[in-house]
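job 3f2a | input accepted
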Amino acid sequence: MPNEKQLSEKESLQLNTDMIQKVKNSYHDKGVGPLLWGTVVAIASFVSYLQLEYDFKLSFDIWLIVLGAIIPQIYLINQDKKTQKIKRHEDAALNAVWLVYALTIFGLSFYQSFAPNAAEQIMKTYGWQLVKHQIDNSKPDEIISPFTPSFYSLYILVYAFPTMVTGLVKKYRPMIIGAIIAYSLFIVSCFTETKYDFLLGAISALACWFIPGILLRRMYLQQKKSNV
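job 3f2a | predicted structure (228 res):
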């Protein structure tokens, strides 16, 4: 009887352990999502900073790689739904948060691309123009197109949102710290030039996603190896 009781306890413990491991192996715990977003956003932000700092342009819009990341994001979430044996409401909620985040980034990019042109057309119908005037009259007045000042600050603010939610739900401190860093850099970006906003955005992406993603991926692979 004692041996049977001990065996039963071991089996029960093993069953609970297997269940915990299956639950933990969700999309958000593998580090794939954070690594994906951390990589593309950091690259796009840093390249944008370099373009403004050294006055050059690429033959394509570097931010297309960020919009392109939405496709593998949706694919990975769908794959996770197929392979994950144990469903949790919190994972479904986090999937929704990251999907809404991706759509929000797309919406901001769309606004930034088309809103200034639309504003220019509206201004023309009223006979208005934006003019850059040097206060010291060192240069002649110059007609300029409408633009959104320090717009990338809003991106940094949005970066912090899914990171903080994921960190709080998963009780994952690196993401919580990363989100706090992003919120802090958002405040700083409100007082800096646009080119430095992009640099702050790259730092935010590394703090929010890339570094936590590396740590998550390492833990997941170690966990997977120990369960083999």
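job 3f2a | Confidence is low (pLDDT under 50) at residues 1-7, 12-25.
job 3f2a | closed
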